[in-house]
Amino acid sequence: MGGDHGSRAIIHGAARAVQENPALTLELFGPRQHVMAELSRLPQPLAAAASRLVPRDAADTVPQEATAAWALRHGQRTSMALMLDALGDSRAAVDAAVSAGNTAALVALSRRALGTLPGIGRPAISTAIPARKQQCYLLDLGANVDSPAHRLVDFALMGAAMAQCVDGIERPRVALLNVGAEATKGSASVREADAVLRDHAARGAFDYYGYAEGGDLYGGCVDVMVCDGFVGNAVLKSSEGLAGMLVERVQSAFESRLSGRLASLLARPVLKRLKQELDPVRYNGASLLGLSRIVVKSHGGARAEGFYYAILRAMQEVEHNLPARLSDRWQAVP
């Protein structure tokens, strides 16, 4: 029931996911009559997947303007809380949760319903950003707006473990996002985290790149970029806006003149691949790393296709048994 485009976009994205993955079943938490009405309006061939979309009645929802404190006090019967309760109930056989709802509420309710892995104080929101040669994990994206040094270190360890577990990178390259590469630059918490991360790298936990600037995120020189949630969220939203603008500019440049339109016919396969690689929709789905179970946050503005990719992200983490592997990696850190 979260998201800017209403339940129809979420249900259409869910229907596509189960249609393309025969082993998948999704439980939809929201007002039962409302969910059933949307399911009845699914177009063909998505309607054939409705048998594996199971409504779970939840009369209340978390408002978009709600605070984390409101969610903890008043959100026990909301669709988000009931979804997380089902995930935390071993009898329910639920593997992951996906939500496009209020981020602050999702983080707070997830911590209460699921708890964090041993040794991890707070979860971090992380997603993959397309880079020159491969993707780069950026965290935190908003779960922790102002992070002390020890939390930045936690984010680095979790991001490195994510790159190892999901992408098979034996020694991920980790960097701290900063305003410059000089040792004297940055806040006190960033400089303190830098010293600790150098010590971890010396003991073989990962390769530490040191300080990196914003452009390094896309250059392919690092696998994990660490920052506090305020900076990370701003970088992510800016990246999405820039990617969309670049794709539109390229298309309009080709279409502005007859010669451009003719060239676009020849370049269409390349343009199509470029659009797919840069499209933020394909990277929708941010992981709440550090929780005992898998929770994926979809962008609130995602339409059906974006929510579909968030579900795929959750399925990938289930396939890799991510929380257990993160815990093993965490315990192995010297």
Secondary structure layout plus pairing:
Layout: H1 6-20, E1 26-30, H2 32-40, E2 53-57, H3 68-74, H4 79-88, E3 96-99, H5 103-114, E4 124-130, E5 135-139, H6 149-167, E6 173-177, H7 188-202, E7 207-212, E8 224-226, H8 229-255, H9 258-278, E9 286-289, E10 294-297, H10 304-319, H11 322-332
Parallel strand pairs: 1-2, 3-10, 5-8, 6-7, 6-8
Antiparallel strand pairs: 4-5, 4-9, 9-10
Helix pairs in contact: 1-10, 3-5, 4-5, 6-7, 6-11, 8-9
Based on the model shown, name its key terms.
single chain, alpha/beta, two-stranded parallel ribbon, 334 residues, 14% strand, eight-stranded mixed beta sheet
Short account of what is shown:
This protein is an alpha/beta fold and 334 residues long.
Task: Give an overview in words.
The structure is a single chain. With 334 residues, the chain is an alpha/beta fold. The protein is 49% helix and 14% strand. The protein has an eight-stranded mixed β-sheet with strand order 3-10-9-4-5-8-6-7, sandwiched between helices. Strands 1-2 form a two-stranded parallel ribbon. The protein is globular and about 60 Å long. 43% of the residues are buried.
Please identify the structural class as seen in this structure: alpha/beta
Give, in spatial order, the strands making up the sheet with the most strands: 3-10-9-4-5-8-6-7
Say how many strands there are. Answer: 10
* Main sheet properties: 8 strands, mixed
- H/E element order: HEHEHHEHEEHEHEEHHEEHH
Overall morphology: globular
Query: Between the first and last Cα atoms, what is the distance in angstroms?
Result: 43 Å
How large is the count of helical segments? 11
Helix content: 40-55%
